[in-house]
Amino acid sequence: MAGEPQDDCLFCKIVAKHVPATIVRETETTVAFRDINPQAPTHVLVIPKAHYKDAATLAAAEPALAADVLREAQTVADEDKLESYRVVFNTGAGAGQTVFHAHAHVLGGRGLQWPPG
């Protein structure tokens, strides 16, 4: 069921503290942690604690929770003293999503070209 933890979800396991992660922030509704394969000096994932398969599903089901994720992305950028940064939501395998739990990538600390790869 949407919103409920999934036994086979890596990010649900991080939320439950069953899998270690370098957590940089945690709120009542979100967790932010460093990406294990960083693509920039700052590469932090911000996830809702509730399980939704992607950003579109999250936004449709719980817009306030989607806003929490974006608010935390801003806080991560502020704490890393980023003047410029990018927030990316990959939605679907064709867009590069590999973990099917909604998450925002916060990327910064170097020049980011457009369009991305």
From TrEMBL:
Motif window: Histidine triad motif: 101-105
Residues at the active site: H103
Short name of any one Pfam family annotated for the protein: HIT
Gene3D superfamilies: HIT-like
Identification of the protein by name: Histidine triad nucleotide-binding protein
Domain HIT: 10-117
GO molecular function: catalytic activity
CDD domains: PKCI_related
Superkingdom to which the source organism belongs: Bacteria
Provenance organism: Streptomyces chartreusis
InterPro entries: Histidine_triad_HIT, HIT-like, HIT-like_sf
